Amino acid sequence: MIYRDYGQTGKKVSLLGFGGMRFKNIDNHDECVQLMAAAAEGGVNYFDTAPGYFETRSETVFGKGFAEMRKRGLPYYCATKTFATTESGIRAEIDAQLKRLDIPAIDFYHIWNITTLDNWESRKKDGVLQTFRKLKDEGLIKHICISSHLIKDEIKQLLLEGVFEGILFGYSAYNYQTRQEAFDAIKEKKLGSVVMNPLGGGVIPQHPDLYNFIRREGEDVVSAALRFLWDHPEISVTLVGFDTIEHLQNVLQAMETYKPRTQAELEETKSKGSASFEGICTGCGYCDDCPVGVPIPQYMDTYNQKLLDKKSNDPIGNRLKWHWDLKKEGAGECTGCGQCETACTQHIPIINRLKEIANS
User: Fold this and answer.
1) Which among 30, 47, 13, 3 has a CA at the least distance from the CA of 242?
2) Is residue 283, in this structure, part of any structural domain at all?
3) Full residue range of the structural domain in which residue 311 is found
């Protein structure tokens, strides 16, 4: 196992992390606990969950998993999250979480899922930061973290506030073009960084040919996608949502046989990818100046899901709801002025795609 610094916290975390939202049989606690313990035996020490995973049952399983790790003398760090923003709401949440997790303090506690800067300002007004600081002073949490799907300058603005010790955000060979600003801020502030959705929400294994640019000789696309992330020195942890022991063993094997690219090789790989996504929005953001305020990059990312996700019944609706907190009808506010299409370096038919989203 490879271990990296989590920002300036002094903690060494496993480059491979355990995500708690993919258990195959969440109600089979023994099976889930054994999966967690096997990951810890394999060197994983970063375990991430949330109160919304399986309606708090993931946190309950984690509590039993941590108890088993303590019994075996295996080290672990716990990461979880809260949507609550007021002091009373956060305290009620964390009291319940600590009981479910069966631990005295949470190592990495996240303000969960910032989707817009307005949303962030609203949470701050509710006092979320003051409460997190109090919880840290009281020893109930050890590090103040945040999770976000913001892109480009917005995520950089969020991270440069100087409040957070680490961030959880989506990053993969699917969306790497929209996240460089996050890495710039991570390096500037020396933050811990944990990435989720390493397979692009399932898009990458569904389209292996499209992602040949990340594969080296003999690699399957899943191993290649993970190793592509491990090649980034700014990443502290890559989260994988394990469902079976076999899945865990395959990923541990990919780690064991991992040979890093040089920085020059990584940049060359990225440049090949940029050339391969014909018709796929790469998230450059040049269209992000809509006169009527339509968040075009987010809607174009959503349309990517329609093009690439062949398994979801409603890829547009799911992406808008769970990733961007937007509604389909918002795309219908487009006036058709054409400013975005003039700015688009990929010549994507943005206006037609917005209409399609609004009418889907």
Assistant:
1) 47
2) no
3) 296-359
